[in-house]
């Protein structure tokens, strides 16, 4: 009977130690997760800035092309035949 009681107490102490260890590990993982989420947010913000810059540059290029086409169109004959 005493042996069973000692075995039970040993299991309780072992389980308590395991729970404490797991709680510490969980807290470490939560801190790491929080740090990783902050890094992800920072990179996401940088990506947003880069996407905006690329879109802006694309818009500038599109406007430049349209301007050049308009210049070129002015040089072309009207397409109407001259009546002589």
Please, could you describe this protein's structure?
With 84 residues, the protein is mostly helical. 88% of the residues lie in helices and 0% in strands. The protein contains one helix and no strands. It has one helix at 2-75. The relative contact order is 0.04. The model has no long low-confidence stretch (mean pLDDT 90).
- Spans of 5+ residues with little confidence (pLDDT < 50)? none
* Mean pLDDT rating: 90
Order of helices and strands: H
Q: Which term fits the overall shape? A: rod-shaped
Report the helical percentage.
over 70%
Structural class: mainly alpha
- Give the end-to-end Cα distance, rounded to a whole number of Å: 127 Å
- Tell me how many strands there are: 0
Residue fraction in strands: under 5%
Roughly how many Å is the radius of gyration? 36 Å
Q: DSSP helix count?
A: 1
Tell me the major beta sheet.
Answer: none
Give a summary of the structure in a few sentences:
By secondary structure, the chain is mainly α. It has one helix spanning 2-75. The radius of gyration is 36 Å and the shape is rod-shaped.
Tags for this entry?
0% strand; 84 residues; 1 helix
Question: What topology does this entry show?
Answer:
Blueprint: H1 2-75
């Amino acid at each position: 009977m005493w042996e069973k009681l000692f075995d039970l107490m040993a299991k309780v102490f072992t389980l308590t130690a395991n729970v404490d260890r797991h709680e510490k590990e969980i807290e470490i993982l939560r801190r790491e997760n929080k740090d990783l989420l902050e890094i992800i947010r920072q990179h996401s913000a940088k990506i947003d800035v880069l996407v905006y810059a690329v879109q802006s540059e694309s818009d500038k290029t599109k406007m430049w092309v349209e301007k050049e086409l308009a210049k070129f169109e002015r040089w072309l004959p009207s397409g109407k035949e001259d009546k002589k």
